[in-house]
Design a protein that fits this description.
It comes from Pseudodesulfovibrio alkaliphilus. The chain is mainly α. It is built from 6 helices and 6 strands. It starts with a helix and ends in an 8-residue tail after the last helix.
Length: 281
Amino acid sequence: MALSDIEKSFIYEYSARLLERDMLTNQLFAGSAVGRNLRSLVLGQPVRAQTFTNPFEDAISGTLRADAGATRQAARNVGEAASMMGVARTGVSTITGALRDMQEIIDKINSGELDGSSSVVQGDYNALRDKIVGTISGTDFNGISMLDSAKWGTSQIGMDGKVFIQSGPKGGFDISFHAVDTPSSGVAWADLAGADLGAEGTRANQLGYVQALASEMDSVQSMYRSKEDSLHSQELALQSQAQILDNAARLRKPSDPGMTLEKLLAELILKESGTIFDSKG
């Protein structure tokens, strides 16, 4: 006798229910860790039930956390680049300050306040020049000389004064420094000589040298300041991005994402017995 559609449906659903319960019984009572947890739960023993986790959620949240870590490292690298620019800017600022003092000496000689032939005045002028040369040689960040091109061409800084900054897992960018030891104006630091302050003609040459160098150093300092501000902004943006990724990972995988055995049994009981409200309306 052929079975009706209702009878076929009943047999199928009943068989599926029996199979489901058989699989659950084997999992819970076949000497597994879950079975031991259930026994502990029934007997009231203080043993934490096994936690069931979602491997897909773990994988996604793990990727988000890894991306957040990489972004945070990139932020630190960019912040270090900003610090390098800050050190270079401070060094150039020291140089421009010394050049202003040198111009002031020349102005006072021209006004009659100082004697350009005085060895003391010439010594002060030369001391300021030596201060500039020392600043160029001594300005560095973790062993990277940023103003003296004679010290370039290492594993940290190229011959062209570029330093590579890793700002992401797949690449980064270069920051560039100026060869302050060889000014582009064509005036060498050695051209600044206190002995030339005694005569009006050579003193005028010294004034021209100082003004040309001061103008160039002002431009370099302004560029360094702009780059430093830009890098700080980039650092903050990367930090914010890392925080967003951290939040996304936490939302994707809460601190207690697993389903305990108690929750599993509760859901099975509710599935069999029903609830006060039907979630499907």
